[in-house]
Amino acid sequence: MYIAVGLVLLCFVVLAVWTTWFRQKPDAPPMLPGFLPIIGHSHHLIGDRKLLSDPDDCLKLANTCYSKSYIYDFAKDFINNGLITADAATWKVNRKLLNPAFNQQVLDTFINEMNIQARNVVSNLKNELDKKSFDVLRHIVSFTLSTVSRTSLGLADEDQKIIDTDYAAAIDSIFALYCDRFQKVWLHLNFIFKWSEIKRKQDRLLKILHNIMIPVRYFCKFKPILDQMLQMASDHGVFSDEDIREHLDTLVAASYDTTSSAMTHMLLAIATYPEIQDRIYNEIQEVMQNKDDDFTKHDLQKLVYLEAVMKETLRLHSATPIIGRKIDVDIKLKNCTIRANSTSIIGVYALHRHPLWGPDANEFKPERWLDPSISSLLEKPALFAAFGIGKRNCIGRKSYSMLMMKIVLAHIVRQYHISGDINKVVCEFDIVLKPVSGHHIGLKLRS
Ligand code: HEM
């Protein structure tokens, strides 16, 4: 009886506090459907979130707040001060130091390795020929991991093997574990998490990952990204061994799932539209003069239609449909004010279908990227946010990831005719939006 009365009284007090202190301010953004007094949307997850889809608002937010939502802290034990998870102050310093490691001259030296890895995929795909369909994702995942780790670490073959097997398996498991924790809201609280089985499993995986990556610096054979970091460490007295390990793990972690998912969608898009596939093939044959040579930097620059198809796939099938930011200060947007200490979500999916893209925004039309009017459209840079927006965008965006994906796609289309249907794909959102079904394609050797 006393407990019931106590609970009712408590409810009155909480409601009174809410209505006086936390009531929606007149300039607050509209709430998403499903909002409840006091607990916000926490019955969906935790906390009260705003989803933004106006390009100017999104850019303003991305360039005002560099802090990530607390969800990114789940990976702190793994990549701590790496760019993805670093707090805003550390990130600013590190991003400035690391930007030069991704300059065009460095990346040009990766083209040879990327061609080698792409030819390996083409060769492995021979085992899949003439099947009605097969799961292409696993081939793409292994291509991405081999290419990124080879170009970032520059290991000799025998050392690389451990990355291709043990490291790949551990990183896959740790991503699955972060998703598991994300979905179990009670495990967001550290004091519960630290006693959980997931935490024990995480510790075991971290040990494996750290033991592989820490000695890597001593095996480095050529001039990849690792070498640039070692140079910075000695020139500027920055980056301890542990910092370097975190940055290398970050590069692999940031590229692994995103690039695999993007490339799988690109192959599926190419498979779905035969006239688009023919046009890509003809472009490749024309640029390469029907030869089976490796693609050089100049050849790649001429594959403009292939690039348009890649961008259009990233627009309609973005691997990162949302980006979360922690709001540090009040931000005045066009029609509302976002208050400090909340979380906001940049709606990449919505930006990519914004009415400014035109009445055909939902249609797959690579030609839009070749239309001269695209440059005036992209004066609002947030309209294309596949690689994030603002200063804390993807460090590997244009040159690294577009280069890697273009090379492998060009090799595959040159050898094989691809069949499949992107409209049958069912995706699941874990760390990125990934195809979980329907990512099956068929291949036939071109005559
Ligand atoms: C298609 C492939 C890729 C996509 C779609 C993609 C997408 C993104 C997005 C959306 C962000 C911003 C995340 C946020 O603000 O929370 C990001 C950040 C990042 N990406 Fe990528 N990425 C791709 C490939 C790569 C590759 C190949 C690398 C490395 C070589 C890479 C390294 C990074 C890093 C280090 C960050 C953190 C940047 C920072 O905070 O300064 N990404 N990526």
UniProtKB/TrEMBL annotation:
Localization, per the record, is:
Endoplasmic reticulum membrane; Microsome membrane
What cofactor does this one take?
A: heme
The residue range of the signal peptide is 1-16
Residues bound to heme are 394
Keywords tagged on the record: Endoplasmic reticulum, Heme, Iron, Membrane, Metal-binding, Microsome, Monooxygenase, Oxidoreductase, Signal
Magnesium listed as a keyword? no
* Keyword Signal among record annotations: yes
Q: Name one GO molecular function term.
A: heme binding
Top-level taxon: Eukaryota
Q: Which SUPFAM superfamilies match?
A: Cytochrome P450 (SSF48264)
> Topology versus the membrane, per the UniProt entry?
Peripheral membrane protein
Q: Which GO terms describe its cellular component?
A: endoplasmic reticulum membrane
User: What does the protein in this record do?
Assistant: May be involved in the metabolism of insect hormones and in the breakdown of synthetic insecticides.
Q: Which family does it belong to?
A: Belongs to the cytochrome P450 family.
What name does the UniProt record give this protein? Cytochrome
Species source reads Spodoptera littoralis
